[in-house]
Amino acid sequence: MLEVKHLKTIIALENTGSLVEASESLYMTQSALSHQIKDLEDRLNTALFIRKTRPLRFTVAGERVLKLAKSVLPMFTNTERDISRLLSGNAGRLHMAIECHSCFQWLMPAIDVFRDHWPEIELDLTSGFSFAPLPALKRGDVDLVVTSDPQVLSGIHYEPLFSYQPMLAVSHHHALADKAYIEPEDLSDETLITYPVEQERLDIFNLFLDPAGVSPHAIRHAELTIMMLQLVASGRGVAALPNWALTEYLEKDYILAKPLGEDSCWTTLYAAIRIEQLEMPYMVEFLKDAKASSFQQLKGIKIVN
C-alpha cells in the first residue's frame, strides 16, 4: 500500500513545513504533490496532516508514517549508494571550486551528507576568487565549479542547480531606500561593493549594468558577504547579492534589498562538470544532494524549467 515515493513526500513535508516548499524540494508541481497526498490518504483512509497550519502539523497517523519514513528511507539510500560504489570502484576525487562565499550556506550540508556516504572519495573545496575556476576545470585541476557565469568550453557540461534573483542591498538611510526597484542609472553615482573577481563574472554587470552602458562611480572589494553588508549598513556603498544570501540580514532588518529593474532580474546557478565525469555514480549522487540541500536551506529560489 505504501510506496517509497509516499515516504519521500512525508519527509519533504516535515523538512519544509509547507506544500509549496515541499513540492519545490521534490521537483514536482504543487498540484501533483497534492494529488499524491490525497491518493495516500485515500489508501490509508485517514488524514495525515492538519490543513491550513504553518508550519504544517501531522496527525497521529501522519506521525506514524513519518516515523516509518525516517526508519526505512535511509536503508534504501544506503543500499543504492553501496551498489553504486560496487559498480564504480573504490577510488575517486571531487575537488570543487565556488565563486561565491554565500554558497557555503547550502553547499556544506550537501558535502556533509556526501562525505558520510562516500568516505572513499577525496573531497576538497576552495574559493574561485584567486584563480579562474572554469579553465582549471577544463585542465582537470578541479572536478566541479559552482558558477552563475557559464562559458562555452568544449567538454564542459553545466548542470542547473536553481534560479535566483540578484538584489541590490542598501542601508535604511540610503537615497535609494524608498525606490520600488533599481534602474541602472541609479548606480552611476554609487560605490558598488563586490567580491574581488572580474566584472564579467558578476551578475550586476553582465545582467544589469553592461547592457545599459552604465558604470558605477567607484568599486570596492570585500571577500566575505558579512563584510560587504557591514559596509552597506554603514553607508559606505551598495552591494548586489543573490536574494537567498540576503535572507538572514533582511529578517534581522539589517539592510534593505531592492530588485534590479522593474521586471526584476533572475539568473541560474550551475554546477560545471567535465562531460566524462557526468555519469560517474558519486558525481550523480553529489548533484542530487546539492540540489536537495539548496531547496532545504534557501528561501526565494526556483526550480530551473
Automatic annotation (TrEMBL):
Residues 2-59 form the HTH lysR-type domain. SUPFAM superfamilies: Periplasmic binding protein-like II (SSF53850), Winged helix' DNA-binding domain (SSF46785). PROSITE patterns: HTH_LYSR. It holds the Pfam family HTH_1. Keywords: Activator, Amino-acid biosynthesis, Cytoplasm, DNA-binding, Methionine biosynthesis, Repressor, Transcription, Transcription regulation. One of its GO terms (biological process) is methionine biosynthetic process. It comes from the Bacteria. One of its GO terms (molecular function) is transcription cis-regulatory region binding. The keyword Transcription regulation applies. InterPro entries: LysR_HTH_N, LysR_subst-bd, MetR_PBP2, WH-like_DNA-bd_sf, WH_DNA-bd_sf. It is found in: Cytoplasm. The keyword DNA-binding applies. One of its GO terms (cellular component) is cytoplasm. Belongs to the LysR transcriptional regulatory family. This is HTH-type transcriptional regulator MetR. The lineage of its organism: Bacteria, Pseudomonadati, Pseudomonadota, Gammaproteobacteria, Alteromonadales. The gene is metR.
